[in-house]
Amino acid sequence: MGLVAFATGKIREGGAAAMGRPGVNELRRDAAGQVVEADAARILEAIAVARRRARVVVVYHHNHDWEPDMADVPDWQRTFAHRCVEAGAAAFVGHGAPVAQGLEVHRAAPLFFGLGNFIFQTEKPQGAYPAEAWESVVAECAFDGGRCVSVRLLPIVLNEIGLGGPSDMTTRGAPTFAGPKRGGTILRRLAARSTRFGTRIEIRADGEGQVLLPRA
């Protein structure tokens, strides 16, 4: 398996990698809001190299350039995710916005534009984030011959208040499985956001979900 990771937005001055300096693999956007092609070419080449060396390549994008409604998938990110798949990625995984965004399947590759939070130990006060920032899913993908053949979705919830009370930040935001009732609610919201991309999610009685992938 190969992994190519990069980030967009809120990267401190001097934090990006450069010749002779380690740092963040940055995907910048230009004044028109499109990805900087020099960055895009570097990342796509890394994906192509990884694909020559590994059967499955996962691309990971930490994105902080959100839309006004942070549940919306930015068009530029979606376009670049497609390019990543066409360069050899078997899955595209996004994170950054604190809510789960819709998902798409492109050329058999699942595109998780934003999976929301998994562990969320923010020091911001209770109520600073919407309730759904404390709900998400774990995606379990199976691959065969370099192609994704199944995607299982396991809904999770995170405790907004630490076990020791509002001042307990060390145990705040830890994930547990949601259970059938709340899990169904989380999956229905994710399914609704995914319909824009033509993606269907089957919600089971036990509160788990299955992405309906196209046939080979």
Automatic annotation (TrEMBL):
<dbReference type="InterPro" id="IPR029052">
    <property type="entry name" value="Metallo-depent_PP-like"/>
</dbReference>
<comment type="similarity">
    <text>Belongs to the CapA family.</text>
</comment>
<dbReference type="InterPro" id="IPR052169">
    <property type="entry name" value="CW_Biosynth-Accessory"/>
</dbReference>
<feature type="domain" description="Capsule synthesis protein CapA">
    <location>
        <begin position="20"/>
        <end position="121"/>
    </location>
</feature>
<dbReference type="Pfam" id="PF09587">
    <property type="entry name" value="PGA_cap"/>
</dbReference>
<protein>
    <recommendedName>
        <fullName>Capsule synthesis protein CapA domain-containing protein</fullName>
    </recommendedName>
</protein>
<dbReference type="InterPro" id="IPR019079">
    <property type="entry name" value="Capsule_synth_CapA"/>
</dbReference>
